[in-house]
Amino acid sequence: MQSSDSQSNDEANLQLNPDGSLRHLLTLKGLDKSLLLELLDDAEQYLSPEGMLPVRSNALAGRTVANLFFEPSTRTRASFDLAGKRLGADVLNLDVNTLSRKKGESILDTIYTLEAMAVDIMVVRDASTGVPAYIARNVKDFVSILNAGESDASHPTQGLLDLLTIRQRKGGFENLTVAIVGDIQHSRVARSAAYGLRTLGVGELRLVSPPAMAPDDPELSFATIVDNLDEGIRDADVVMALRIQRERIGNLDGIPNIDEYFASFGISNERMRLAKPDAIVMHPGPMNRGIEIESALADGAQSVITQQVTNGVAVRMAILVRVAASMDAR
Ligand code: CP
Asked: Which residue CA neighbors atom 5 of ligand 1 most closely?
């Protein structure tokens, strides 16, 4: 059995071709600064002014993308679907409730079946750690795997859209204090954002949570761990709220009830007075209004939550084009 650390290093290596180009996207760990910045630059090309027609191209004409979401999703699934279609790909959205995996078929047999139908890119969300990398190790040379959310471990396209949103609003990373607030321990969003921010040289990253939700991942030891919200968001430039990932919490001991949680760790307009006056408020969604974030703040002037969603389509278009280009070069 591999340690989780060596496992994630394997994943970081597995996703790159020998020439350094992107073969799969499994984690932001191990992607260097220049590649991350190139991906953000690429994504900018797929944004259009609000109200204008979305950017389209034929970069994926002839390619087939299959979306395999074994966990619920609104934003990631819809944006991969739109991204593939806006690039001219055939897009297959598989209904996991009617897949033969429910009848005992192994995940690899499902993947081999799709390979035999000439699916080039498989977008995978799964509740178990290691599934995207396991599939990536077993597919044919012409197939790319994109991680669309892996247990509490990794959500790399979410990390990229968060980085893009921060760069658009703040211009860079080096002088920023970023506070991620909430259930850090069970959050793949926090991990991917943290790895990306570390690579891009963020000034300070604070991970703010009740002790029962504090990170237990040594890879996050570069961040400042804080268990008091006022301390965590004081003078921050960016405040990201996270929902409580109840589906991943086995033992609720030490987890505050909803009212206690909002009182102690909910982000509100009043709380945001402690952050910098021009601080932005982020949330990956889905939001639980009134628990981790006050509704008025989520809809207010500091919120960039809908910009994150818009950027999600652009980032996924950029990733699809990258891996398709690396297929053409193989
Ligand atoms: N942020 C995110 O992954 O949202 P969905 O679960 O709706 O895809």
From this structure: 73
- 161/205 Cα distance (integer angstroms): 17
Q: What are phi and psi of 147, to 5 degrees?
A: -80, 120
d(CA 203, CA 160): 18
Mapped onto helix, strand or coil, the DSSP state of residue 60 is coil
- The tens place of each residue's pLDDT in the chain, 330 residues long, gives 344 555 566 777 899 999 999 999 999 999 999 999 999 999 999 999 999 999 999 999 999 999 999 999 999 999 999 999 999 999 999 988 777 777 788 999 999 999 999 999 999 999 999 999 999 999 999 999 999 999 999 999 999 999 999 999 999 999 999 999 999 999 999 999 999 999 999 999 999 999 999 999 999 999 999 999 999 999 999 999 999 877 777 776 777 788 899 999 999 999 999 999 999 999 999 999 999 999 999 999 999 999 999 999 999 999 999 999 988 776
- Centre a 10 Å sphere on the Cβ of residue 276 and count the other Cβ atoms it contains: 16
Which residue in the block uniquely carries the two structure tokens 């990631």?
A: 76
Closest ligand 1 atom to 76 CA? 8
Q: How far is the CA of 287 from the centre of ligand 1 (A)?
A: 10
**Tokens 């990306």 label which residue?**
196
Q: Is the peptide bond before 286 cis (omega within 30 degrees of 0)?
A: yes
Pocket mutation for ligand 1, best pick of 67, 70, 76 (most atoms within 8 Å of C-beta): 76
Name the region of 149 (left: φ>0; alpha: ψ -120 to 50; beta: rest): left
Pocket test for ligand 1, best of 68, 73, 180 (most atoms within 8 A of CB): 73
- Atom 3 in ligand 1: which residue has the minimum CA distance? 76
- Ligand 1 centroid–CA 284 distance in Å is 7
pTM (2 decimals)? Answer: 0.94
For ligand 1, residues with CB inside 6 Å are 73-77, 149, 158, 284-286
Residue 169, amino acid: R
Instruction: Write down all domains in the chain, each with its CATH number in brackets.
Output: 4-154+309-329 (3.40.50.1370), 156-306 (3.40.50.1370)
